[in-house]
Every structure is written in C-alpha cells, then in structure tokens.
Amino acid sequence: MTPDDGVSMRFTTIFLILITLSGCDRAGFGTAVPYRAHVEPKIAVIMPPDAPSIAQQYMPLTKDGEPGHRGVDVAAVVGTPVLAAADGRVTASFNEPIYGNRIYVEHAPDATGRRVVTAYYHLDRRLVETGATVRRGQKIGTLGESGMLSSYPHLHFEVLRETAPGARTASGLNWWQGMAQEDPNTLWADGIGRVTCFRTATRYDPARITYPVACGRTGAL
C-alpha cells in the first residue's frame, strides 16, 4: 500500500462515518425517518405519498452532548422547487460557504404576538431577494446541495419563533436574536405530525405551515 492509498482509505472511512452519523435516509417519497432515541417528544409523522421524504428529523441540543439538528431535511433531486411555507416577507437572501444559498422569510405574528421565521438552506438557486413579499406555495428557490455542510441534495428547513413578543430586536442577517428553533412537525397546516403539501385550491390557517418542497413524483430519486 502506498502512502497515497493510506490517505485515501482514511478519507473514505471518515466520509462513511459522517454519513452513518447523519442518520440520513434518502428514500424518494412518502417516508420520514424516525426521531433519534434521545429526542422527546417523538412525533408520529404522517407523510403524503407524493411528498419528498424527510431524511433527517429535528433534534434539540442537549446538555449531555447529544447532537442537535435545528430543522428537518427534505431529500429530493437538485432543481426540485422550494416553496414558501406561508405568506411573508423575505428578510435575507444570500450565499455563504457553510450553508450555501439561504433564504429567510418572516411571517405574520402568531396568536401570542410572537413573530415567526422560516429558513431554507443549501439551495441550488435563490429566486427571491431581500425585501420581496411572497405568498404561500410560491417558488422561492430550487433544492440543491450548496455549502460545505451539505453532503447530498436536500433542503434543510427551519422554523423559528420569538421567545416573547418583541424579543426579536434585529432583523436581516441577525435573524437569530430573540428567536428559538421549533420542530416543524408541530406546525403543519393539517395538524401536528401531518405533513401538509401545498395545494392551490386549499385555504390554510395563516399561522400554520405547508411543506416547503413541491410534492409530486417528477423528481424521484
């Protein structure tokens, strides 16, 4: 074995370990991987059969060092439409090395007066700019694998809510101030754990979200 062969084997081993630890399942449609053992509560997730699959679930950070994952990952082919999860205004749209192309959309306050933001990472293309007004179901980008933290085509999708009304004193690139991530599976329009594909003829509660990736089998893996 040459030194180069040894280096190659080490990189291959590290890559395989990272894929294993990620817990990602890139099945095509209608499935959702289970929550990790340490995550509570474990929501029973019901997927529409034509919804691109959830490849990684939400995991809050814990004090004992268990891994965190502040959103859900939706696996699909590059170019799959990424949709606004509710009506809102784009507060940031930019590219950076770690998460690649990102978009943040701020939505109307919830019933308690707390503002809600949805975040869309690893996009292949961004189709809206900062300041744009978007409608639920509007195509705002395309799914990709941009950024150093993406190892396969997927959308990393987050929901953030103010910790208290008015807690978010900054906006734009300071989107995290006064905000906390929540499990998107608690906020689907059809109910907790009931992933809701956007359908043009349906009326939705403005405080609830619809799936941020277009449903349909045109983008099968």
Q: Which SSEs are present, and which pair or pack?
A:
Layout: H1 3-22, E1 54-56, E2 72-75, E3 81-83, E4 88-96, E5 100-107, E6 116-126, E7 133-134, E8 139-143, E9 154-162, E10 179-182
Antiparallel strand pairs: 1-2, 2-9, 3-8, 4-5, 4-7, 5-6, 6-8, 6-9, 9-10
- Output the number of helix runs: 1
Largest sheet: 10 strands, antiparallel
Q: What is the general shape?
A: globular
Spell the H/E element sequence. Answer: HEEEEEEEEEE
In helices, the fraction of residues equals: under 10%
Strand percentage: 25-35%
What structural class is derived from the secondary structure elements? mainly beta
Radius of gyration equals 18 Å
Uncertain spans, ≥5 residues at pLDDT below 50?
A: 1-25
Distance between the termini: 37 Å
According to DSSP, the number of beta strands is: 10
- Overall average pLDDT: 85
